[in-house]
Amino acid sequence: MKRTACLMLMLSVVLTSAAACGGSSDEKPAGEIALTSAAAETPAEETPETAEARLEPDIPDTKYGGQKLRFLSRVVKDAVVRFYSEVASDEINGEIMNDTVYERTRRIEEKYEIKIVNDVSDSVSGTFKKTYLAGEDNWDVVIDGFTDSLGSANAGYTADLTQIPYIDLSRPWWDTRVADAMMIKGHVYSAIGAMNTWTDSHSYGVVFNKVLAGDFGIEPYGLVRDNKWTLDTFTALLDQVTSDINGDGTLDENDRYGTMGENFNFRLHVLASDVFLISRDGDGNPVLNINERLYQAADKVCRMMCGDSYVMAEQLKLDDVWTGMRNIFRAGNSLFYTGGIEQMLIFRDLETDIGLLPFPKLDEQQENYAHSFSTYWSSTMVIPRNTSAAEFTGHMLEAIQADSYYSTSVAYHDVLLQGKAMRDADSVEMLQIIRRSRTIDPEFAYSFIDIGSIYSNLISNKSADGLMSALEKKQSSAQKKIDKLISQIEG
Predict the structure, then answer these.
(1) Structural domain 50-201+374-406, CATH architecture
(2) How far apart are CA 301 and CA 295, in angstroms?
(3) Regarding the domain delimited by 204-371+443-490, which CATH topology (the fold level of the hierarchy) does it fall under?
(4) How high is the pLDDT of residue 54?
(5) Residue 52: which pLDDT band, with cuts at 50, 70 and 90?
């Protein structure tokens, strides 16, 4: 009981300060999303920490007489990261995320006189597809992983959120950058909101061992603040600490490395270099964006990841590579762990001091950071295209997201991450960099040019020399995929 009271008191203090502090009046007009490059310079994000007054959604105070708002979402299985439902909880249990979700649910239910119902499935997309094709209208909102949600959207099962009454994707409780990146001809078929804190856990960053950094005289926070946090700097640090510490002539799990990672990180490093393979033309259509900066970034990333200092999960001959990589980091044998920021939660029990950093930029001339998220583990919502309650659903979703911006999102970032997982104020500063720069390259989602396979081949060949020819071979098929998608949307 004491722990529960302490955590809830901590959250209440944060929420009180959020409502009293500050924000911007420079909001975009309702329903308008800036059609800019996903990595373009954006104003400082409106957050509870910077808002002058609590922002309220532009929705009526309608009472619905007990109408049900029906969700379909994933089963809660994970004990450390995805250990709570984003939608609803049945009772207070002393865990901050569970209890904040519970209180938000009760608040919305009481204010609008509704009942929130959350059905769960081990295969959300499969369950949704089966009922949708049967002509059933079982759920108002479906929450699934980003890739699976996009699959439902591409199949024509989901509504255009820009046409749903009351939903305003320009407001700060929606991830406007991701919505903007995924917009096609003005249409957005899935979105991430403030309630989708699973996506926050699975956004990408770099965890580092502060003790090991100190031993080598490395001060990463200063490199970030001095605009020296680049691929060249990062690569040099990896090489600096990598060593065959047992002297057996072979680098294995018993030696020291620059970083733990995986093949997927190739595309994350390229994105972090402010390179997007898909952009938009003047009509809002996706177009291939192959340029010299891509080749420059890919060459640097390939050289870095193919060296001995960058350990990829696919290289390890272990029964459980993820546990194995974390154990190497836990043992102090890796300076960095490059992956989802959920590692800060997973390493909470680690006695060694750790910190958080953004992904490095390509060079010092790059103005902005860019970070993506796991398209598998992230959480994204859609509204079924055959909804019979679009106005009700849009009204309640906007209300829930706006409330979440000041409740569950605050509980996650300010209490769980910053208050319990982060070891210093510097990491909190780095977290804000990651949050403000979260976006996605549509290629990650649609795989028009199959860049994942291309990058994997570069890693296998330990060279980026074949990138240009590989892209040239794929351009025709990529354009056909783009044309097919546009046709589906227009049809």
Answers:
(1) 3-Layer(aba) Sandwich (3.40)
(2) 10
(3) D-Maltodextrin-Binding Protein; domain 2 (3.40.190)
(4) 93
(5) low
